[in-house]
Amino acid sequence: MNAFRFLPALGKAAVLLVFTGFVLGPLTVAVFGGFKTNGELRVNPFGIPQQWDFEFYAAMLGDPAFWRYMGNSLIISLLTVFLTLIVSAAAAYVFAQIRFLGSRMMQAYLLAGLVFPFATAILPLFIKVRDLGLLDSYWAVILPQTAFGLSLSIMLFKTFFEQLPKDLFEAAHVEGCGYVRFFWQFTLPLSTPILATVGVFVFVQSWNNFLLPLVVINSRELFTWPLGMMQFRGEYLSEWNRTLAFISLTILPAVAFFIAAQKYIVAGLTGGAVKG
């Protein structure tokens, strides 16, 4: 390899190493912190533990409240993913396949949600959820998360659907296949990459959501894991080692979900990148 190719490759490797450090650095500190005492965390927050103490991780795994928090987060995240995929895929299919008056205006209206910060809507959202009688329930979190996830999901689905062969629908239409049947029997089975991509984005966002459950959920039995993490923070003392052990264990489902769908994500994001 000559110098003209070696130097750019070296630069790319250096940039990638820096970004890898930004991602893996905090994760490593959190995992190691769960093995340390609070005293060791104060004097050695970033290093390897002097003694590997498994007490805090074992206490988390043996605590029924930990599994309840995980179960609540899992139910909310999976239902949010299911509703978002169904609603956004159906809406994107209509925008991609059918031309009707006002379709562009409706698309622009939906895409405006991409620039609307979630936090600015938290007060009117709380009032609307209260008026619907959904406070302190799973649906108080699921429905708003689904609504706010539609903008990006519809944009990704529509771009992907527009790349599907038009001849396929025309052939199916000749055989008497309508729009609804074509959507369920042909479009969705051919859209595994974009379904996995949108599903991962929505799942991770819902799994890590802290603000919305904090505002609309009051019962400890319905707490998600970000709210359950607050039990280690008192008025005068914070148990940082238990907090870090708790965080290390609770991010595992999101990481596993991402790894399982990883091979589809690139295909889903690039599926609509080239338009013929």
From TrEMBL:
Keyword set, alphabetical order: Cell membrane, Membrane, Transmembrane, Transmembrane helix, Transport
GO biological process terms, semicolon-separated: transmembrane transport
Membrane topology: Multi-pass membrane protein
Compartments it resides in: Cell membrane
Positions of transmembrane segments: 12-35, 74-96, 108-127, 139-161, 182-204, 244-265
Presence of the UniProt keyword Thylakoid in the record: no
Taxonomic superkingdom: Bacteria
InterPro entries cross-referenced by the UniProt entry: MetI-like, MetI-like_sf
Domain ABC transmembrane type-1 residue range list: 70-261
PROSITE patterns: ABC_TM1
GO cellular component labels: plasma membrane
PANTHER family, per database record: ABC TRANSPORTER PERMEASE PROTEIN MG189-RELATED (PTHR43744:SF12), ABC TRANSPORTER PERMEASE PROTEIN MG189-RELATED-RELATED (PTHR43744)
Family designation: Belongs to the binding-protein-dependent transport system permease family.
Protein name as catalogued: Carbohydrate ABC transporter permease
Organism: Mesorhizobium loti R88b
Upper taxonomic lineage: Bacteria, Pseudomonadati, Pseudomonadota, Alphaproteobacteria, Hyphomicrobiales
